[in-house]
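ARCHIVE CARD
Drawer: 12
Card no.: 0347
Subject: one protein chain, sequence and derived structure
Cross-reference: see card 0346
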Amino acid sequence: MHQIENLADTQEARKAHQKAGRVAGMALRFGARQIKPGASMREVLDSVEEYIRKNGCELAFPAQSSINTVAAHFCPTDTADHIYADGELVKLDCGAHYDGYIGDNAITVSLGGKDKALADAALAALRSVERNLRPGATPFEIGSAIAKEINDRGFLPIRNLTGHGLGRFEIHTTPSMPNHAAGDRTPLVENQVIAVEPFATNGTAGMITNGTTPTIFGLQPGRPVRSQYARDVVHEVEKYQGLPFTTRWLTRSLGGKALLGLTELRRSGALIDYPPLIERSGGLVAQQEHTFLITKNGCQVLTKDDD
């Protein structure tokens, strides 16, 4: 029999996921309201992260904002900011955790409205997930529903980006939730917690490729470190309990030596890089995401902001 991992099968786990999801949802809407031409991306992301902490949770990963052809994984540094401009298609992705139980969500803002149809296609796909997610549904079926909504509006889903299960202190676990008709046909079960994130593009490839200069990382445990700089970075990031972190968090706590430590750790293979992800044909990309708890007869949207 197929073993299902990371079930939220206790009342404590479900309540913690619900707390994290509620805070992540509120933080996402709080941040989205600040995305306007002339606003600083770094200031928006800092405020989202502060909001999560002030509301009783910790960060599941660095708040991120990716522009136009960049689908995901962009974070500014303290020396390189981005100022939002009219006409940009802006993704905002943030996550909270409560005692390790995670809520993960994302939204797309079309500044000036010229690409609102693309953002709306991803949103329609996300709403189809809410209608179809239930015990017995399969990742293949959910991916098919996502692709249909996006294709029907004249766009392509991103085929090599997926949603994912959420475990305790694990941001990406089984099952993988595709954005097209592919993937696992294993039925989903009650009490699984899943982040589903439709990505839509007006490009011709429907695929992403890795960009350069990552600013988001994960620690690869058990790798030897030599310099004091690297040891200081490892000591600092261990507080995140295996969850991702970003460069500016470290430079704010460790100063310039953080960059020296990061360089050594990358060279030694002690870090996992999360580079910016760019649509291969140069198409614009929209993303929408919620975290769902699969219930007895359907699903609960954990990251819905009802305020």
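Annotation on reverse: The longest strand covers residues 58-67. The CA atoms of residues 59 and 243 lie 9 Å apart.
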